[in-house]
Amino acid sequence: MAAQNSDVEEQILSLLPPKTLMRFKLVSKRWYALISNPRFVDKHLSDFNSMHNNPSTSVFIKRLVVNEDTKESETLFSLLSFSNCSDDDSNDGGKPASFLLGVEDMEIPFPMTSLDTTRGESLEIVGHCNGIICLSISRSTKVFLWNPAIREFKLLPPEPYLPHWTRTCSTAADYPKDVVTMPFFSDDPVFGYDPLLQDYKVVEIGFQGAYREEDNYVFHPPLAAVYTRGTNSWREISTDSLETETTNLWPGNFQLYFNGMCYWLGSEQLKEGSIYDYMEEGYVRKLIIAFDMSREVFHDILLPYELINPPCITVWNESIALFNLRDSDDADSSNLLPYSDASDAAKFECLDIWVMDGFAGVEYSWTKHLTLELREHPSQSISSFWWDQTTLVMWNHELLMVSPNRSIVCYNLSSRRLKYLPIQSGSKDREAVAVVYLNSIVSVVGDKKLASEQRKCSNVAMV
Questions:
Q1: For the chain, what is the mean pLDDT?
Q2: What's the distance, CA 157 to chain centroid?
Q3: Pick from 246, 254, 272, 259: nearest CA to 205
Q4: Distance between CA atoms of residues 406 and 408, nearest Å
Q5: How far apart are the C-alpha atoms of 138 and 124, rounded to whole Å?
Q6: What is the pLDDT of residues 43-60, one digit of tens each?
């Protein structure tokens, strides 16, 4: 009977919000041990965020707010709450829709802002996974893990293996003299979950530079290092899978983490080329680069031949997908990308959604899942929003974007309806960044430390 009561108690607790559970940890040592138990943490993550128990979506966003009176700007990290339901006001049968419920501005822990002289402006959202936000300070190597729901944060130890010229130098002129500017390369950290190890990892890529051989540049392959939350340490890993006999694969813009894999839009470049026109002649093709968080191996994924430079990688119906804009009169979009300016993007009337079938990086194929004809908004084409500042984030059938006048808007792919949200996003030179957020009690310090505290509690009589 006691065991049965304990199961009921655990089930009830698993449906409570994180802030409540943090208070309940102070009720008794038994509850402290239960709520700190990694098994309960996983159960709460699943139960509390299930659509049945919590039919809403949270979006964590960095935005710039300008005071209308003083004209001074302030960087805010905010949590937007949306209800997921049917749009009964539409004429198309109550299609899935999301409605803004509220906005909560989050308080950044003082030690994080004390290391950032710009009052949060230089704090960049690197990624999110299971309630943990990964942030870095631009033009530095400092990386944080932060769970705002339980007010827990951690500064990672310095990464000791890689050069970080692009993150610590103000301009390319400050690079060491053997380093060539790499416009297609990004060494920003990425964040995700290793489902086999059941732990969280941060991945960083490093550029070694190049050496000159007569009139040619010879480029070293990329380097990589991985931080593991459980060990609180970095390891250098092999990057053999980022090079072929004649080419290097360079991760570019990081797109997302999904199901144990991190995805970048990247480039394949020749290892050796003329110093005069390497950037043009050395280019081989655009592709997707994926990193398996468990096996710690990189994979290259070719794009559909119709595409040159897809605007974004996202998740569509629980699969990796490509979103690509094109004009309705074109049979394929290969001649439309990249866009030369916003007016080019504004004329595009169709959105193609390509879905990847199979396991990323091993056996896969692309299928054009559907084409959406984008209706014109009375004052602005939805495609010009896309160009002006790409899509911030997507969930269900909703695209969260920033309009040219810096308003935050939601576009529903099912109903093709555009909604302006009463949220300020900033000026044109300060981009908003957002991730879909899950409320959780996942600790940034790791399960080993929590397990040690739990054992201490279990040796003390229950209060």
A1: 79
A2: 21
A3: 254
A4: 6
A5: 7
A6: 999 999 885 556 788 999
